[in-house]
Amino acid sequence: MTKTVTTTIRLDEELKKELTHDLDIMGLNINAYFTMAAKQLVLKKKIPFEISTSSNDISNETTRKAMILAEAKELGLIPDDSPRFSNVDDMMEFLDGE
User: Fold this and answer.
1) What is the pLDDT of residues 54-89, one digit of tens each?
2) Does the predicted TM-score (pTM) go above 0.70?
3) Torsion angle, CA of 4/7/12/15, rounded to 10 degrees?
């Protein structure tokens, strides 16, 4: 059996109350939930759920344009003229020059 350690997590009282209620409905407790989330992060090397802003992920215009440009390059619709670097020093020199 794997040795377990105690971890303390601080939650807002109301959040804990709502979380406990929802997890009870699913037949889980807080410990099981955080253990599942931690195992998924370790296995998949990413947050196991979508993270979004309260504004429903409405990107500002600059971000939206950058995403469209990146997708067009990825699809080969326009040439990918993004600079490429073989080392960090060259990249930093380029960035400092902008």
Assistant:
1) 555 556 788 888 889 999 998 999 998 888 889 999
2) no
3) -20
Q: How many C-beta atoms surround the C-beta of residue 37 within 10 A? A: 13
CA dist., res. 30 & res. 2, Å (int): 19
Helices 30-44, 13-26: axis angle to 10 degrees equals 80
For residues 4 and 34, membership in a common domain is answered with yes
Residue 85's domain spans which residues?
A: 61-97
In a domain, 27, yes or no: yes
**Which tens digit of pLDDT belongs to each residue from 17-45?**
999 999 999 899 999 999 999 999 999 99
Residue 81 lies in a domain: yes
